[in-house]
Amino acid sequence: MATVRIVHLKAALRRCRGTSPPPPPWALCRLPNRSIRSFSSVMSPPSKAVVYDEQGPPDAVCKVKELPPVPIKDEDVCVRMLATPINPSDINRIEGVYPVRPPVPTVGGYEGVGEVHSVGSAVLGLRPGDWVIPSPPSSGTWQTYLVKEQSVWHKIDKCTPMEYAATITVNLLTSLRMLEDFVDLKSGDAVVQNGATSIVGQCIIQLARVRGIHSINIIRDRAGSDEVKQKLKKLGADEVFTENQLEVKNVKSLLADIPEPTLGFNCVGGNAASLVLKFLKHGGTMVTYGGMSRKPITVPTSAFIFKDLSLRGFWLQKWMSSDKAKECRDMIDYLLSLTRSGELKYDMELCPFDEFPTALDKALGKLGSQPKQVIKF
């Protein structure tokens, strides 16, 4: 009996090395499970990744590097990444100005979509070919293969357009939570926002429309603003104004039959934030979730005394850290269903991984105004 086991053990070794075909099932039955496990390859493929060894300007510190295979433990899932976006928060992490950032050296990226390549021996519910996203988001998505515990991955419907699956969390969950967490909005109510052309802005317009909520939108004064207005109105915007159009004493006279908004969103700061405040009704709330102009928010005393306005802030990462994994995934499934039905859409540009430096330049604004950059592997 010992001789039989030695012969089959040698066959198993040759198979791992690719030097012989798999033995028939009866032969495998003679081998103890521990022998098969001992000589099986449990490593990921090598990965190509965008790595930065120090914080600094992304176009200076980011390098594409080859990473060696890593072990796939019993509860791990190895995912072949399909697509991943370049978000403003990714850039801030690389620059070292984001409140939470991984230690360097590290791989960039925080969200994306991938296909299961292989699974550890204790993994149940996922198999090769499934599409998954990290939920909540997890660092290191700018690489071709990513190994993390099964608990990180959320299986999604493969009918979802790849670019929407890759970008569903950071921007869309922000839009949904801000609409639902601060004011009890009802059909017929109104919201106002600046930064309406951003992905969050476009999603707020569409999610508000689904709920029967009016949206008042503020955009920058720039060439082509008339085309931008028409585009946002096609998404469901009720009103779209440039900042210069709002340099009037009574902005509410511009609203026609739309009620005064009770909730406003600010991602710009400076004068654009002041314009949001001008629209809000008595007791209204402005939620700040970004500061693209890097200018402070200036609030007149009268806004507090006579209008009783409230100023709040929203940070998705803090919300997701509050033991909300199941709730978060249910919302993602809902948002993905809206992308599949065509009720939720926004501008993106798919860029091959080999052209990452160009996509990064576009994301940094070095090539003018550009849509969201999504890297396709």
From TrEMBL:
Transmembrane segments: none
UniProt-listed SMART domains: PKS_ER (SM00829)
Ranges where the Enoyl reductase (ER) domain occurs: 56-375
InterPro entries, per database record: ADH-like_C (IPR013149), ADH-like_N (IPR013154), ER (IPR020843), GroES-like_sf (IPR011032), Mito_Enoyl-ACP_Reductase (IPR051034), NAD(P)-bd_dom_sf (IPR036291)
This protein's record includes keyword Disulfide bond: no
Keywords linked to the UniProt accession: Fatty acid biosynthesis, Fatty acid metabolism, Lipid biosynthesis, Lipid metabolism, Mitochondrion, NADP, Oxidoreductase, Transit peptide
Localisation: Mitochondrion
Keyword Oxidoreductase on entry: yes
Superkingdom classification of source: Eukaryota
Primary localization class, coarse: mitochondrion
Enzyme Commission code(s) on record: 1.3.1.104
CDD domains: ETR (cd08290)
Reactions that this protein is recorded to catalyse: a 2,3-saturated acyl-[ACP] + NADP(+) = a (2E)-enoyl-[ACP] + NADPH + H(+)
UniProt-listed PANTHER family: ENOYL-[ACYL-CARRIER-PROTEIN] REDUCTASE, MITOCHONDRIAL
Family the UniProt entry places it in: Belongs to the zinc-containing alcohol dehydrogenase family. Quinone oxidoreductase subfamily.
Protein name from the UniProt record: enoyl-[acyl-carrier-protein] reductase
Protein's organism: Rehmannia glutinosa (Chinese foxglove)
